[in-house]
Amino acid sequence: MRPGPATPSPVPPEPLVPPLPRASNAAAERSLAGWAVAAIGEPAAEPGEPPAGRTGDLRSPGVPPPPGPGSDPWQLAAPAPGEAGGPAVSPWITDPGEVPAPPVALPARPGRKRRDRSTILGRFLDRVDPLIVGALLFLVAAWVYLGSNPGRIDFYDHFTWQAEAWLSGHAGIRWPVSEGPFVNDYFQDVLPLDDDPGHALIPFPPLPAILLLPFVAAFGLAASASTLAAVLGALNVVLCWRMLLRVTDRRDAALLGAIFYGFGTVAWYAAMLGNTWFYAHVAASTFVFLSITAALDADRREQTGQAARRIAGILVPRAVWAGFLAGIGMLARLPTGFGAIFLVFVGGGGHWFRRGLSAAIGALIPVLLLLGYNLTVTGHLFHPAYEYLYRNEYRPVGAFWNDSWAIEDPRYIPQNAIIMLAWPPERPIEEDPECAGRGNLQGADLLFDRQCPLLRPSPIGMSILLTSPAYLLMLPVLLRGRRNRLVLGAGLAVLLITIVNLSHFSQGWVQFGYRFSNDFAPYAAILVTLGIASALRNRTGTAIAVLLVGASVLVNAWGVWWGVARGW
After folding, report:
1. CA dihedral defined by 66, 69, 75, 77, rounded to 10 degrees?
2. Residue 183 gets which letter from DSSP?
3. Could you tell me how far CA 149 lies from the centroid of its own chain?
4. Quick check: 26 pLDDT over 70?
5. Which residue from 261, 381, 385, 483 puts its CA 20 to 30 A from 127's CA?
6. 84: helix, strand or coil
7. What number is the average pLDDT over the span 14-32?
8. What is the distance between the alpha carbons of residues 435 and 456, in angstroms, rounded to a whole number?
9. Is 193 exposed, middle or buried (0-12, 13-18, 19+ CB in 10 A)?
């Protein structure tokens, strides 16, 4: 029997945190003023102060404007979008046709006059269309990424060769090619085909090669994967900004969060380098950002009272779409799929089971396509090249590899966690005998002397706390907002991706920083931005947030310089 159309559930949508008990209208109005900070934990209220309310997302969608000026001391001071002096209405803030709620002011403590703690940058951004900011972010990021590595030598360009193979009707790339304008006989991470001499399989998921197809069709093997990585990386900075506008009502915090992601994490290094492994990180991040934003939009629609359509009364199309985008990201980097736990906590459906089931079905479509591709090309559901490479490829640091352990083994976690959290830079002046007597360096030579600097990045990696110290801003958010759906979902996504990556036998050699952090960076950007939004409430917090983001940018600029200088 054909089912009839599903009727909207009478149960109201599940808020991002548990709802408060019923209160009087006045108390309810007061609690609404706390929506913007509920996700990161408002300090305990003083006697007589109303508690912070629940939240849908941090932009407080659907909050009706309070009465006119002077009628209530809890009134929002900011003008509504579209009014004189108010922020411009942009299609980036909500779905077309919806009007974003005005920024929510912090409630004043009884007996105290509330101070306007918005920054100059925040007041300026409230009057600028986010589309304009996004366009400027793209131009700046593209200029920086392309300019950081002007030579753009695609030394490792497995995906270009893979795209060329598909266009030639082969599953395996031509290998080894040692003559002609384009050679690849030095490639690692290839599985020779005994039944097809002169060809080999690469183990990587196919999305990066798929994105290169039109460029290889036009330019052949001269198509530059590294240039595409730089452009996609710049787009990711814009997608991060777009996502963060749905996370916080403070546009200054969203901009600082996007700057941190784009220039204060190893996303910069990956995008400017763009060789095989780093290009895969960039391509995966594009779809992870799209997936997170789709989930936030689905949640917003329910919080604004728009009932989600359902298929068979269970499946939520918008949640299916968010899951599908997450699954597409797995076609570039498999570990990003473990971040899909976020979609159980954030998205349409009004209930974790409907969200999770819908997202799982959406993600299953790309995963089944990947398994079908593996089966067609190799005869196995799981690509056999991984195990072959684990047993045969060059291992630069033998101490980090154990022949009796599996390619994914939890026994690798303790030693790999040291690389991720505590690995230091090299100290040539102290450690290299050839640098004896060179301890009189001064000025910039301490960090940039090519032979014997005081410090230079280690090819094994470096602690993310050294390369991106603004990640520390996540900690208070995780501690105070652990009951919040948004915080819990993002935190678990970071945790699961980290565990999977730390269990892998290889930790990203050769690299600046810890390249596997690219897999969880979109989710971590949410937590960092919530920490920035909390810090911007006062001058001391603002100084700390700006200092940490600025330090992250400077360290990554140093790492990018060294990566290019050392020919990594």
Report:
1. 110
2. -
3. 23
4. no
5. 261
6. coil
7. 39
8. 13
9. middle
